[in-house]
Amino acid sequence: MRMDRRHHILVCTFFIWVLLLTGCATEHRFVKKVAFKDKNKVVMTFAGPVDETWAKDVANYSVYEKQDPDILLKITDIALSPDKRTVTLTFEDALNQDQAHILTVTEMMSAGRSQGTAILTVKKLYFGYLFSILIGAMIINNFVFTKYLGLCVFFGTSQKKTTAVGMGITFTIVIVFASMMSWFLYQFVLKPYHLDFLQVVVFIGLVSLSVQAVDTILRKVNPALFKAFGVYLVLVIANCIIIAVPLILADNEYNAWESLMLSLGAGTGFLIALFLMSSVREKLELANVPPTFRGLPIAFVVAGLFALAFLGFSGMSIF
Q1: Domain residue spans in the chain?
Q2: Tens of pLDDT along 3-62?
Q3: pTM of the full structure
Q4: Hey, what CATH topology would domain 28-122 get?
């Protein structure tokens, strides 16, 4: 029995790692690996030796950030390894490694033969990249304290810990479910049929459907929590975060794993914000707060202090 359980765990772990590592594969058979190095370098490893004359010609490379295709990055130096399988590109400015870069390599020459043109995506190690998306949405770029989104529900349900935690968990479930449905429809319906202009309408509809489903289930499963949420559960439909995440997924062309990490991070970040705020507001009920600051005014002051604290995470890089 123990052996079977251990066997299942090993198999599940193996498949998870396979799924995560598949994102590390390059888009061309002749290029084995492409990655950032230091602050201003990109390293390419080829399947075979390349011609030195071709490798050191700057005109054969063009690099830009995925979000800014019109701005080409200037290459100042090209180094070729002794075995002629590794090319290191050095750039004039430091690279923003939090963003994916597109590297175009034209007519790769090996032993006098052309291996074709490769369009490669340069980004962090895939598992680290996924983790950075999760932590970024959860803490570093918390949607409440750094982008000031979802404040209506945030202030409305952060008076008590129980309500705050319940709303945070419910919100996370809704945003993950709605975001994954939005990603699927965008990638397989809107994008192939050139209906991108309908994405806002479609995403709002999917969010409304998700909230309605949670509303119906919660009404039956936990009526007390449903009553505690009151009108704020319906306001989740108009929550800026739950609309912003699908739009970010579409704009950045995230795949399924990256979309899951962003939506999970956004939901968990909202849960953290609610829990922190509710913990303080429960203490404020017993504090000697001046009459003019009682209620929402002191809550806004506390939220501002939390925002200043979270500002200390800005610019932080995990990997």
Answers
A1: 28-122, 126-311
A2: 455 555 554 554 444 444 444 445 688 998 898 988 899 999 999 999 999 999 999 999
A3: 0.70
A4: Immunoglobulin-like (2.60.40)
